Amino acid sequence: MxxxxxxxxxxxxxxxxxxxxxxxxxKSVAVYSTAxxxxxxxxxADEAVCIGPAAxxxxxxxxxxxxxxxxxxxxxxxxxxxGFLSENAKFSKICEEHGIKFIGATAEMINxxxxxxxxxxxxxxxxxxxxxxxxxxxxxxxECEKLAVEVGYPVMLKATAGGGGKGMRAVWKPEELKKGWDxxxxxAKASFDNDDMYMEKLIExxxxxxxQIVGDSYGKACHLSERDCSVQRRHQKLTExxxxxxxxxxxxxxxxxxxxxxxxxxxxEGAGTVEFLVDKHRNFYFMEMxxxxxxxxxxxxxxxxxxxxxxQILVAAGVPISGKNYxxxxxxxxxxxxxxxxxxxxxxxxxxxxxxxxxxxxxxxxDTHVYAGYTIPPNYDSMIAKLITTxxxxxxAINKMKRALDEFVIxxxxxxxxxxxxxxxxxxxxxxxxxxxxxxxxxxxPIEE
Length: 449
Known about the structure:
This protein is 32% helix and 25% strand.
């Protein structure tokens, strides 16, 4: 087992990893930017090292600074969390070259699955259902036009280096294709310095359902059931739940087997997710694979009583997995609480938290790094907390979430708590009747005087 793990991340996920390290008797090292000096992950780690100024490019994305911090603290492993360098093949490789275990995928694995076009080809080889589309990178607009006719409208143009909804355009008819092509490439170039594109059939009325998997260094993998992540705004998830209200036992079995097949085919090591689109006929198609821990991993932990961070660390240390697949025993819902104003187009709302009252009670979990008096910096993602409720049934989990949201008081900044409270009363959400287009027609109710 590792003696000391450096957490190359910040906020709630860094604190989450530190907690498991402490429970396992492993020392932890926090890294932080000057903007995060007062964050809880810095206070609770065994050691903390400042790695640069507020800008991510000079701190949390600065590989040389992170490796230096690991070396001066004698850390023998690095956990990257999610975001930042968690799916950076160069970082994974440099860790290996410095004799530091990267608690995540190898550089080869990240390269293989990080590029969406090559990942799709790999999944086809593995026998996993894929969305019809281009066989690889589209070399020209003329090729794009021809493919669109072959695949059949509507189509989705996607950047091969994409993420967070960047470099994506839906095209419903031929006369819209040229603008979609130009706009997607321009955005991809600006976001990723890579304007390579591929095309897929646009799946109508899709659900975004992902399967949590864990693979070990001996070629074995297992799945830990599904998560429904369909409630999204601009391709960013707002809330997730497990099990999916759309799932059937047959579909869960089929998707779980496909996810395990995909993981074992590429000999995947670590925790990851195989993400699928599920259409209105319950056909499912591989979308992408995330080679890291997910933001929404707590809801899986809650319904199967399983510590995924602990499993990541054990697998990285060479411990084999049990090989057992897990099915949800309860129902869990996660609401991402962001420092954003839902009444003003979800505009970011950094600043000082004047008052904070956290919800509690049976079946309520709150993962957060903020507290009363903490100032949320404007430099990073706006998520400040994850509120999770767990109960025997979906109805009970929703009712518990309503109660928890009513108890959750944050003053001094705007948050998405009012949005989630309204969502829990939305008839379509309550009925489980939602797709990835759910937010297109959602409007916040007026503030009650």
